[in-house]
Amino acid sequence: MRRVAILSYGMTKVEKHWKRSLRALFGDAAKNSLKDLDIPGLDALIVGNMCASDLSDQNNIGALLADHLGILPATAYRVEAACGSGGAAFLAAYAAVASGMYDFVMTGGVEKLSDGVGGHTTLSLGKAADAEYELFFGSSFVSLNALIMNRYMHVYHAPRECFADFAVLMHKNGAKNPFAQLPFEITRDTVINSDWIADPITLYDCAPVGDGAAAVVLCPLEAAQKYSDNYVEVLGVAGATDTIDVASRSDILSLNSTVVAANKAYKMAKLIPRDIDVAEIHDTFTITGALSLEGLGFCEKGKFNKALSDGVFETGGMVSVNPSGGLKSRGHPVGATGSYQIAEITMQLMGKADKMQVPDAKIGLAQNIGGSGASTYATILRRAK
Amino acid sequence: MRRVAILSYGMTKVEKHWKRSLRALFGDAAKNSLKDLDIPGLDALIVGNMCASDLSDQNNIGALLADHLGILPATAYRVEAACGSGGAAFLAAYAAVASGMYDFVMTGGVEKLSDGVGGHTTLSLGKAADAEYELFFGSSFVSLNALIMNRYMHVYHAPRECFADFAVLMHKNGAKNPFAQLPFEITRDTVINSDWIADPITLYDCAPVGDGAAAVVLCPLEAAQKYSDNYVEVLGVAGATDTIDVASRSDILSLNSTVVAANKAYKMAKLIPRDIDVAEIHDTFTITGALSLEGLGFCEKGKFNKALSDGVFETGGMVSVNPSGGLKSRGHPVGATGSYQIAEITMQLMGKADKMQVPDAKIGLAQNIGGSGASTYATILRRAK
């Protein structure tokens, strides 16, 4: 298996991109990732997206975007694993380069949620749940996660305030991110007193809906230094699944897909959670952030509250969590979120994160979830120099 | 790069599967592919699908199907390249095994088109076209292909009858296929006198709409004989793209994505078109069949009519084309079609095709298109023993 490097990254600000079409938006991120990069050409494009069929009436966006980027007749296809599409696309691209089939592969994600009128966006997002056992009975993502959050508070005697404090930390980080959708600080009261969405989840427990695109360019590690003096090595890549409906799980307070994917990625990278300097984790809701941090081994199960108040997750703490602001503040353009995470970890390891920079970040992890924990993609990267 | 084998295949009959849900339908094909196969387990599931989000309100079907098959927590995701989804999923699965990341991978496709009410299915299929430059202006797949067919007849002085004769050959083959949606013979008059869909295309120039699922199981070639004494080697796999909108092409009578993908696959397999004994090609419309055969190098450009009347494409001819009946007669469950083709070629090379069997078939090719030629996936397989 060939070792694989990331040569470059690009992204757009997450916001309501009313004036950019799906292809134009991805083009912006792709152009950024290709800036100053003198490679022979791209052999393949593997792109994550969830909602374009529903909200932009567009499928086959691999070919659409390859055409827009001017890289025809490169191999191009879409990968979909709901909100985990970006992470899954990265895994496919990694295999494509590691196998020797392709040398230069762009992988990224694009999502344009603002184009949905009426309840179309909410319905489209709901299709990440089990249509026959959850969606058709009226469950939405937020209601499922509200059940989980209530259960978590009951079982672990966790105060509602700890979830608010996690949102506060995310906004503190995101306020420094020029690409964040909600780049401002909030207080504990902002979260607790914001509108109810589904008890106990309030508006500020939720990631916002936005549009965005992000991309990275991969090549074989042995070729990387020919094209860049600041690249990143891919140490571990893994994907895992769990039941798509929440009720079928033996323990709804454990993200088993995250536990399995993380352990596979750690094993592949020959690392343990303590080795991770910086992590971009999947916090669709504040409760999802808590379960993700526990599943990744950054704190013990049920001990999220203590670790958070001990400063474990702050920039410069044991592991700097979501210096981008995470889904909560950077935003959550669903099929592109995993691509943002990998682009952001790359940016950190290249030392280009400016005000978000985690000092001396050498090893980073991205954790991207599809559905309410149905799929997880874990990616571990290392600064090459 | 590790060499890759196909250990087994499974498929369902293509029809209106009113009583099978999306997951049950794929389960049927998967179960067939696992019958009598004693492997340690499946490491990953990579599944092609186009329309489940639109017609079954379901995304993240990788996790959905992994759960249904009882293979959690295996890595699982969906690949989409419109009608080329099955071929693209195979390419991703091939890379996954060739890289060494996974040993046992199931790849297949599933599509349930019958669940679409009103015009939903037609709209959903239309999303394989360029939404902004074709679909929004009222173009449908059949109208775009009607323009191409008219142009072909004008430029090459091809008679309308040759397209009808191709449909007749496909139905002659499909009549022997227990899995075909339209398993009956027709005459030239049946085609020419059937209802107009878009002049000059009539009903019997078109592939029908149906539901179906197909799957194959891959493993490293070196491990294959441990699990089966009748397996197939993957010799060539390639994907290529063209403009998604038809009008932007320099020559609408050339399927450039097919030409490029086929040439790459031939080169990888160290073969030429003459070496192919049996081919499953993508004949959404009879004109698509003609352009595919020319693009694959099975006859010269513009010479489809002569080659067809010379018997080149008949079973036992220079290349036995679509012994399954092709999209025209076997049926076209879009995101699963490429998976059917690969399963059918595998069946032929294993000598298990019964009445459809091409005598002494050693080498086979599958050609799967997404959109009106926007993407093509070409796969070349060889009988191992």
What does this structure look like?
2 copies of one chain form a homodimer. Chain A has 385 residues and is α/β, with parallel strands linked by helices. Chain A contains 14 helices and 12 strands. In chain A, strands 3-2-4-7-1-8-12-11-9-10 form a 10-stranded mixed sheet, sandwiched between helices. In chain A, β11 and β12 form a beta hairpin. The longest helix of chain A has 16 residues. The mean pLDDT of chain A is 97. At the A-B interface, α2, α3, β3, α4 and α5 of A face α3, β3, α4, α5 and β8 of B.
Highlighted features:
homodimer, 385 residues, alpha/beta, two-stranded antiparallel ribbon, 37% helix
Q: How many strands, which pairing sense, and closed or not: the largest β-sheet of chain A?
A: 10 strands, mixed
Q: Determine the strand fraction of chain A and express it as a percent band.
A: 15-25%
Strand order of the largest sheet of chain A: 3-2-4-7-1-8-12-11-9-10
Distance between the termini of chain A: 22 Å
Q: What is the general shape of chain A?
A: globular
Q: Helicity range of the residues of chain A?
A: 25-40%
> Which regions of chain A are unreliable across 5 or more consecutive residues at pLDDT < 50?
none
Output the number of helix runs of chain A: 14
Rg over C-alpha atoms of chain A, rounded to the nearest angstrom: 19 Å
> Assembly state here?
homodimer
